[in-house]
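A protein record pairs a chain with a discrete description of its three-dimensional fold. The following entry can be read in just this way.
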Amino acid sequence: MLLVAATGCGEDEDEDGVPDDYKVVAGTQLCGGNAISSDAAKALKVITGSSRFEASAEEYTVKQATADLADEYPRATVTNDFCRIYTPLGTPDFDLRITWALADGPPTSDSAPEFTELKMGELAVTAADKAYVFFACQSDKLGFPPDIHVVIGMRHWATPTEPEGDIQALKDAYATVAHSVSLAMAKELSCKNNGGLPTKPVLDPA
């Protein structure tokens, strides 16, 4: 359900510098409306303390990210924006960035000590302020090549600080959101067997 921000409409809004179309939405409505599951929306509340967020920009959708990947494949060599998540105006600032990238192959190096490894896709790793999911995809949308290797990342975009709160709960929350977005992209890409991703996040260490 979309909720118009309580800043009113008309001239006052302009004077306050708030766009006329500014909206606040539930977590499940972010990133195009089919990337954030109900579990992932609950996880966003664990991370940010908020259950409402600024509405995503129109280009931040699973469909757009998938189209961009298909257009750039196999030349994509950089990390690309998937979606950005912000807490509403008048609340404590929180900026989350979700990205996609293509890798040359499955992850082979050891994970950094801050990460916990999880059994999702080729690999998932999660920390108290970030998570990454790696999955392989075969899809006729990409001409059914050998597996392409997709990396979905999610991180708190802020000056590095010590995370506050329940560290394990934060790790689980970041992993839950990263899994939700990864599964949505695998489905949009029509990856065989959803890229090996489970229907629910696996939070037990690998």
In short: The beta strands are 2-4, 23-26, 52-54, 80-86, 95-103, 116-118, 123-126, 130-137, 148-156. The chain is about 25% helix and 25% strand.
